[in-house]
Amino acid sequence: MAESIPRVKRVTLGGDKNYDTQEFVKELRGMNITPHVAQNNSNRTSAVDQRTTRHVGYQVSQRKRKRVEQSFGWMKMVGMLRKVKLRGIAKVGWLFTFTGAAYNLCRLRNLTART
User: Fold this and answer.
1) What pLDDT shows up at residue 109?
2) What's the whole-model pTM score?
């Protein structure tokens, strides 16, 4: 999928800790894409070095990534997407869309309550 990204300007690509490998980071840099993957420092050194992490954009992208992870976590726990009981792409797609809309309504409720 990274190869199909139009490169009009410098591009970044985010990912979780599983994508913090030497091969993946090297491949992205070869395609002129900045890897904004979460660092995996548990019992090893991260493939993402200071060239990437020193910039403010890396911290911004990690905060945005957390927001996405929270929505998928909500969809799994509350929206019953952890173990889907439906079969077929159309039915599962409908359930995912419905659950995403429900999550947006819950977020909207919280956003309007603050004003």
Assistant:
1) 84
2) 0.65
